[in-house]
Write the structure tokens for this entry.
Amino acid sequence: MFEISGVGIVAAFLGGTISFLSPCVLPLAPGYVSYIAGQPAAKSGAARSIAERARSVVLSLWFVLGFSTVFVALGAGASLLGGMLLRWKYELGLAGGFLIVLFGLVMMGAIKIPAMMRDTRPDVKVDGGSAVGAYLLGLAFAFGWTPCIGPVLGSILAVSATSGADGMALLAIYSAGLGLPFLIIALFTNEIAGRLKRIGAAGRWLYRISGGLMVLMGIGVMTGQISRLAFWLLETFPALGTIG
């Protein structure tokens, strides 16, 4: 139904990037990056040395590895569950498609589920400025962000559980899409700090448009037409066939 092809890779990566643009991740990202690096909060236009930028990027990479560990583990669990319930593949397709439609409607703002509009921010007592601390914060914040980024993350997990796709690979690609913007912010924290409102405004529209696409994808999963959609994308954008 949904193999790890060029279409799947691009969809999972863009899903991670869209999750970063969600209202409860983007505004907090510069603060997280500054804390992870053990540096003062970002000030728009303030200069930073190359050494400070490099240190921030390296520690942020450990942070990304932390939340990637959690998400890849979730992907492995979704694939395992799907394998165990293979005899109910049709029913799983209906349930998974319904969840994807539901998550898409949440992203569009058509319905509201309060649990998905917040982050829990677990109180983890670790100091910033170290690789171990950054990794532990990544692990902790993966669970804290999960309610907020749940629509996209949940959709990928649903696809993994219902289609037989490699959940670990999909979630690794998703984590890369979510992690890359963090590394960019780590490199250009002060330059981006003053532009967050404009980025956030554009991100909200992209988030809603992506929700509409997810509704269509969910309907495709429920009706068994998702493969036809993938083939259409490959015919329309042949370059997708060269990825992966």
